[in-house]
Amino acid sequence: MFAGLPELGISNGEDLKETLTNCTEPLKAIDQFQMENGILLPTLQSALPFLDLHGTPRLEFHQSVFDELREKLMERVATIAEGKDEDRYIKLEELLEKSFPLVKMPSIQPIVMQVLKHLPKVPEKKLKQVMADKELYKVCSVEVKRQIWQDNQALFGDEVSPLLKQYIVEKEAALFSSDLSILHNFFSPSPKTRRQGEVVLKLTQMIGKNVKLYDMVLQFLRTLFLRTRNVHYCTLRAELLMSLHDLDVSEICSVDPCHKFSWCLDACIREKFVDAKRARELQGFLDGVKKGQEQVLGDLSMILCDPFACNTLVLSTVRNLQELLSQDALPRDSPDLLLLLRMLSLGQGAWDMIDSQVFKEPRMDLEVVTRFLPAVMSIVVDDYTFTVEQKLPSEEKTSLTYPTTLPETFSRYIQENRVACEIGLYYVLHIAKQRNKNALQRLLPALVDTYNDMAFGDIFLHLLTGHLTLLSDEFGSEEFCTAVFDNFLLTSFSSKENVHRHCLRLLNHLQQKVLASYMETVMKTLEPPKQMNSTEFSSISNTIRGDISWFTQYLSISVLIC
């Protein structure tokens, strides 16, 4: 416990033991030891007997004095570090040199750690000693750890890895939330609210103002994104930069070439819309990438691959198409729309760009503009025409029926082009939000075959199930149930476990609305595999208590199985 005292010329327990062993008068030896090692204040010696008279142990007195002096010294260290003296760090280094031998003493350790914390550059020898001792490493401040981490990427990776895993788990848990609502979904929290999450705050604190650590975290995120294709890593990349922006960490923001682009895009995400002014700013950033700096496109593409950015871009695209319809204009005539497609294309191509290390904007398929988007607009016109027809007086109505087929161009492009597919999926969400049952029944079968099975991705299914709650009364119709389940969701549930879970989320919310006869059919389709151990199934069933319906029991069991 008292290791290090001899190095400073201070006697310890071993010295006292040796003195008592070799002396002839122990009481005198003890008095002498107390005189030499006690508080060197002449006036104190005459006062100590009064403490004895009051029954106050010398240990208690010395401990209280020690605690007070320790607090004063720690305050003094902070004051010196915050001062403007040119030699302030020299003073701290001298104090560190004197106190470090006692770093293992619990009573002295806080002082040593305080000195280490306030040194902008801790001597390398001391850092290695701290790093080599697990207990010291554990108790040292994050300011000291930053200096250790910046030269030990593996150690920093070990610290960061659990946080990155936690972040992904939290994002995926949000997508499978049992709370289905169009108002409170995955994209509801504002950017600033999301940046108050535990993981983002911890990473921001770990990085501080250290550019090297920031670059390491970005490299971890790129590597994990490449390895897993998980777009939530792209979200974290953007959130981390904007969290540092919120804290005004100019040391990092000023050197990240994506900072101003992310800042502008963050404002768009907050509004869930890219207006004309911000569109021009974003275009200026993209056009401003100079020759020789093309590598920045890799980071820009990651930021645009963030689902929150993608959500904003596609919502703006759908809104833009509506405005073009009202103006009798074509998609190719809208610079803002072309920019949105350009950014969507760059974001959707993030993985390919980083994987190939070919930093070049992907060429946009012009037929998406000249053929696919007009096909989407024709579907909108079909809806509008049918709606107007239904409102006409009976004598003016024609024999117009609602179309059941889709333009061949629409179906082909959502299968072959990722940007077109994203727009098509969000158009489906748009018509669901409008409670347009006819259009939904027309479109859902086409989503069975989409680019890279995007229609069966968790983000889209999370949003779709939330939007379908607006049409809850329609689930009393077998025709609508067939369109949603048989013609779309149940076409792939057996091969995609996530689709099974989203079906259960939707059914749990709509159990009182779905047609009873159809419910029984869906239940049989979704029932657990027969090979499941009956004892295990029974055990799970017995854990469910309370007055709940048989359907809710089954859902609980199914979720556990999944």
From TrEMBL:
Its GO biological process terms? negative regulation of transcription elongation by RNA polymerase II
- Please list the coiled coil stretches: none
Give GO cellular component annotations, separated by semicolons. NELF complex
Output the InterPro entries linked to this UniProt entry: COBRA1 (IPR010405)
Q: What is this protein called?
A: Negative elongation factor complex member B
Question: Organism source for this protein?
Answer: Cyprinus carpio carpio
Tell me the organism's taxonomic lineage.
Answer: Eukaryota, Metazoa, Chordata, Craniata, Vertebrata
